[in-house]
């Protein structure tokens, strides 16, 4: 059975479609509880995690390191959940968080801006002008954060397997389309896709364990062997590399750790000056 | 080869000699009646003559690939379960194989126990 990642633009009935698609496919719907679990893992209040994923970058706002910490924990919680069984999930940037898994169906729910603003105004009993402003602002922030955190254009439809215009379909019909697509053989779980998901889940658990030490560390894993790629430099770099290695080795499921230090341009230029 | 009564017939096809020998040994030990091929042309000819219960085939094998083998099996023996194995696994390849009717898609390297479990699962699915 496929897993389904639903990505919903502001003003689209994402949660309703996700719940109905989960019912139709016999899967479990998960959403807000993942954010709560990720916040707990990151040691932050859930409101702060929500802010990290939904507010625009600003000089006095949430730091990039905090945003990365939140994402690392959300990825770890999400992929851990996906290993447990058929799931339909709806979390911010979910389609960026799980990549390369052939049995994950990625769906974007969209509608023209004016339709979404109308729904927004109805759902929140606000004026039409206010709804238009809020929907536009959310679209702007979504695009900004996708570029900042994933170097991606979030409006690129190639990120998705299926794009559904919710202004043409009601919730039941949209969920039906999603559920029917998910039953196509191409989205069936294979030994390979299961292995990819297990590798990704382990890499994400390790990343969550390391992100407090090094928020830019890149982690991949294959069959229990974890590879770390870090830009940790400076006088204490040896100790910090050892620390990263130790922390990674302590994560459940890790059978070996390889660490690669990337010598970035800035550290190379500044080394003679230190 | 004399067909052994009641045994599940498995075709193993891979142009790597060592992979074929490993699969033949592991699956033979598990009680399957295994016919192994390193030449895909010979394997396709054999598929014209007899129906196998399970076909385990590599993807990349010179001028004939595993997807062509899968298509052939679907034509001549649609009930045969085809397991695709490859050292060059990618998401889109897995999706294509499943879309064409593969039973499973397995990435190399794999351990003997893992491939046996996949074949056992295919054998149970009647």
Number of strands of chain B: 5
**CATH architecture heading of chain B:** 3-Layer(aba) Sandwich
Number of helices of chain B: 5
Described by the principal axes of the CA atoms, the overall outline of chain A is globular
Which segments of chain B are poorly predicted (pLDDT under 50) over 5 or more consecutive residues?
none
Main CATH class of chain B: Alpha Beta
For the sheet with most strands of chain A, the description reads: 5 strands, parallel
How many structural domains of chain B?
A: 1
CATH homologous superfamily annotation of chain B: Response regulator
What is the general shape of chain B? globular
Helix content of chain B: 40-55%
The level of helicity of chain A is: 40-55%
Q: CA-to-CA gap between the ends of chain B? A: 25 Å
Show unreliable segments of chain A. none
Quote the average pLDDT of chain B.
90
H/E element order of chain B: EHEHEHEHEH
Spatial strand sequence of the major β-sheet of chain A: 2-3-1-4-5
Number of domains of chain A: 2
Task: Give the largest interface pair and sizes.
Answer: A-B, 14 and 18 residues
């Amino acid at each position: 059975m496929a897993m389904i990642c639903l990505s919903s633009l502001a003003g689209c009935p994402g949660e309703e479609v996700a719940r109905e698609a989960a019912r139709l496919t016999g899967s479990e719907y998960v959403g807000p509880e993942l954010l709560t679990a990720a916040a707990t893992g990151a040691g932050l209040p859930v409101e702060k995690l929500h802010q990290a994923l939904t507010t625009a970058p600003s000089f006095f706002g949430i730091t990039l390191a905090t945003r990365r910490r939140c994402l690392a924990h959300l990825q770890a919680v999400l992929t851990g959940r996906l290993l447990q069984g058929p799931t339909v999930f709806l979390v911010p940037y979910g389609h960026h968080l799980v990549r390369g898994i052939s049995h994950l169906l990625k769906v974007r729910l969209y509608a023209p801006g004016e339709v979404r603003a109308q729904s927004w105004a109805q759902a929140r009993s606000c004026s039409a002008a206010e709804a238009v402003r809020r929907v536009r602002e959310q679209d702007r922030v979504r695009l900004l954060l996708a570029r900042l955190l994933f170097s991606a254009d979030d409006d690129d439809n190639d990120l998705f397997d299926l794009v559904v215009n919710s202004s043409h379909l009601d919730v039941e019909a949209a969920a039906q389309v999603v559920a029917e697509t998910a039953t196509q053989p191409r989205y069936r779980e294979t030994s390979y896709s299961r292995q990819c998901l297990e590798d990704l889940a382990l890499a994400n658990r390790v990343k969550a364990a390391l992100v407090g030490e090094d928020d830019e560390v890149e982690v991949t894993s294959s069959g229990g062997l974890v590879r770390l790629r870090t830009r940790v430099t400076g006088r204490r770099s040896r100790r910090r590399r050892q620390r990263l290695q130790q922390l990674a080795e302590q994560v459940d499921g890790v059978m070996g750790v390889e660490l690669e230090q990337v010598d970035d341009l800035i550290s190379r230029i500044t080394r003679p000056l230190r | 080869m004399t067909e052994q009564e009641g045994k599940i017939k498995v075709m193993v096809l891979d142009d790597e000699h060592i992979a074929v020998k490993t699969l033949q040994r592991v699956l033979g030990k598990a009680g399957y009646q295994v016919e192994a091929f390193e030449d895909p042309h010979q394997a396709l000819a054999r598929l014209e003559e007899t129906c196998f219960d399970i076909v385990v085939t590599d993807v990349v094998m010179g001028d004939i690939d595993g997807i062509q083998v899968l298509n052939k099996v679907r034509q001549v023996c649609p009930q045969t379960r085809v397991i695709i194995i490859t050292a060059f696994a990618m998401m889109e390849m897995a999706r294509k194989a499943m879309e064409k009717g593969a039973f499973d898609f397995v990435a190399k390297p794999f351990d003997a126990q893992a491939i046996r479990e996949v074949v056992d699962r295919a054998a149970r699915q009647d």
